[in-house]
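User: Hey, my collaborator sent me this sequence without any context and asked if I could get a structure. I don't really work with proteins. Can you help?
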Amino acid sequence: MSRQQAQLAVAHDVVSGVARAGSENQDPVKAAAEIYRALAPCEPTCVVFYCCTRYPLELLSRELSRYFPDITVIGCTSAGEITPLGYCKHSISAFGLSHQSFAVESVLIENLTAFTKNDADVLVASMMDNLRKKAVTPTPIDKHCFAMTLLDGLSIREEQVIAALSTSLHEVPLVGGSAGDDQHFVDTQVFYNGKFYSDAAVFMLVNTTCMFEVFSQHHLAPQQEKLVVTQVSPNLRVVQEFNAEPAALEYCRINNLKLEDLNPRTFAMYPLAVQIGDHLYIRSIQQVNDDLSLTFFCAIDAGVVLTQMTSPGLLSHTSMIFNLLEESVGEIQLLIGFDCVHRRAEVDEYQLETEMSALYREHNVIGFNTYGEQINGLHLNHTFTGVAIGYPRDEFQPEHTYS
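Assistant: No problem. I've predicted the 3D structure and written it out in structure-token form, which is a compact way to encode the shape of the chain:
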């Protein structure tokens, strides 16, 4: 079977109100048409997509709006896509959620710098009220809901926005990802109902009859070396010094690297983590600067102790994640995946794309490579984060299903 035939076969596998799609066509008119043909059979109440920045975004916006004129369409730019075929680049991936099995309420949050905890309280309360009116499960609906965010990945506001929303959501789990731009680090955007936006986030509440599990995992293990942040500009996520030495030079020292070795691939292969309680949270480096400072993808502050990390095996760990999720939700009909761009770099470095793509195909993953992942109130790096959606719960089994 050819790559294109395989794509069509998988994209049209519509079950229990979910459809998955992907296109590698570089013409946005044709790509949007392919996405529509794959998703339309499930009669979606919502479409979510992730696209590379090579597409002319204004034209892509117009075409998607033309095909899906009366439903919610959200999305963002990416640093690599996960389609029905697995890992892709310079493509678009998408999924649709049917109105029979899902109810969705969404909003665009602009001017992230001004977003406050009070704004989150008002917003979440209003959205939950609206969602209850069209819910597909009986009240109380909270245990049958999850929240999803897509954020401008260069806004440097993910922590504040996610913390505010998560607190306001109470027991409703939140999951999401930070938009990318193919590691140019110039312009990352989110999409909401016809238009792309910077300095913005899309926030969505989903009520469903289906089993689901929100998750976040990393595969890295700690080593002995430590770096203490001794000089930092926290508002910019820029570290000037580790251990009272230029940050880039100290990072090179503990990893036996030369300064000229530092690039996105190096940062992916030589990660760092901060320990909070019993857990290690990765703090990924975005880039090295001319003054030998290092810019991070995540929040960083003075006095933070970072631990050198290593990878004992990404493929086996990812397989374990899927096994655990299937124990929780049964067969996965859609996994909305937020896969850190540094995981993608490791896949490329060790030539694991074929094996990882097979895993993702088998478990129906649709997603993108992010500049950061969100789980409840946390903004993370170097994780595979998402929500696995199974089939409808026994008490909500529909009388008719899609074929």
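In plain terms: Residues 221-310 form one domain. You can pass these tokens on to your collaborator as they are.
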